[in-house]
Design goal:
mainly alpha, two-stranded antiparallel sheet, 6 helices, binds heme C
Length: about 160
């Protein structure tokens, strides 16, 4: 277990992706309610504006569910996503994902394969399983606590 933590700490040495680091975009109540009921309300900065447009246009067929919204909430959320979108695009497809991007894989590459399959995590999209501030849009290192491994620790 100790070794795993040290390996994880090696992630610190990755090139900095300024922007996301420590910068928490406050999540509006509508977004948290409507887009945080089935999963973590994902940070808007982690997909491009085009990806969010695609996501919002396909809510009636959203990853096997119907996540349709009333027109007012949809317009409000779309405008906010558009304004806060990042420069990093998904790998394409009708249903854009953060978790399949090269960036996501690189940032999480030291998470052991068996950890992703842990019943407390189940999906890489379950950000809040490890990032304790995810529901508020926070992903800082101090708030990482990985099921079966523990707190993320910076090596000094
Ligand atoms: C009715 C439930 C439901 C609602 C409401 C919902 N989603 Fe989802 N969403 C899902 C499911 C199920 C997945 C697939 C999760 C997985 O793979 O673990 C998903 C996945 C996603 C993903 C891809 C995550 C990844 O793997 O990177 C994005 C982006 C997303 N949703 C955005 C939204 C947005 C934006 C809203 C609000 C407009 C929303 N969702 C509302 C059920 C929902
Ligand atoms: C299995 C646990 C786990 C899950 C699930 C997970 N992460 Fe992470 N995440 C980590 C670890 C470990 C790191 C590396 C620590 C570091 O370098 O900050 C990390 C790093 C990050 C970082 C960089 C933080 C920084 O300041 O460097 C972001 C942003 C991030 N994750 C977002 C997400 C998002 C968004 C999701 C869900 C779509 C997610 N993570 C799911 C464990 C997880």
């Amino acid at each position: 277990m100790k070794r795993t933590l040290i390996i994880l700490a090696g992630l610190i040495a990755l090139p900095a992706y300024a922007g996301e680091h420590g910068r928490a975009v406050p999540l509006p109540a509508t977004y948290k309610t409507e887009c945080g009921s089935c999963h973590t309300p994902f940070p808007p900065t982690l997909l491009s504006a085009a990806d969010w447009q695609k996501t919002m246009a396909g809510l009636d067929k959203h990853f096997g569910t119907d996540a349709s919204l009333d027109a007012k909430a949809a317009a409000e959320i779309s405008a906010w996503l558009d304004k806060n979108a990042g420069g990093r695009a998904s790998t394409g497809g009708a249903e854009p994902r953060i978790t399949t991007t090269a960036w996501f894989k690189r940032e999480h590459r030291e998470v052991p394969a068996k950890t992703w399959q842990d019943s407390r995590i189940k999906s890489a999209a379950n950000c809040a399983a490890c990032h304790k501030g995810a529901d508020q849009g926070r992903y800082g290192e101090r708030e990482i606590n990985i099921p079966g491994i523990g707190r993320y620790q910076e090596r000094d």
